[in-house]
């Protein structure tokens, strides 16, 4: 007996009649998120560039968040994690999210250190 996949997205907000419709719905969602990323990359609103959060521009945080949303949703729907047991889902999804958060922390911490070294004049800005 074949296992039936759930035909809804956004925790049941949108329900589809077939797998094909669901694939198109997820594709449209991912396309909208990508379009928002591209639009923000082209326009670069001044307010998002001026505001900083944890040492990084708010625009960069938005890009990181939208990229994680897309990665999560691709894994959730196209890799059928929705149909797996809870422990496996958490192991697959949360591990990379914490790893990315850790790598972003390292990036910010080291970048701030390098900036302060150059700012204090220990090394010349020759490049």
What features would you describe in this structure?
With 127 residues, the protein is mainly α. The chain has one domain. 67% of the residues lie in helices and 6% in strands. The chain contains four helices and four strands; from the N terminus they run E-E-H-H-E-E-H-H. A two-stranded antiparallel ribbon has the order 1-2. A two-stranded antiparallel ribbon has the order 3-4. Strand 3 (52-53) and strand 4 (56-57) form a beta hairpin. Helix 1 runs antiparallel to helix 3. The protein starts with 7 loop residues before the first strand and ends in an 8-residue tail after the last helix.
Q: Would you summarize the structure shown here?
A:
The chain has 127 residues and is mainly alpha-helical. It has one domain (8-119). The chain has 4 helices and 4 strands; from the N terminus they run ββααββαα.
Number of helices: 4
Mean pLDDT: 81
Major sheet: size, sense and barrel closure? Answer: 2 strands, antiparallel
Give the distance, in angstroms, between the N- and C-terminal Cα atoms: 65 Å
What is the helix content? 55-70%
Estimate what percentage of residues fall within beta strands. Answer: 5-15%
Give me the secondary-structure category: mainly alpha
List the secondary-structure elements in sequence, H or E: EEHHEEHH
* Radius of gyration, whole Å: 20 Å
Shape summary: elongated
In total, the number of domains comes to 1
Task: Note poorly predicted spans.
Answer: none
Number of strands: 4
How would you write the strand order of the largest sheet? Answer: 1-2
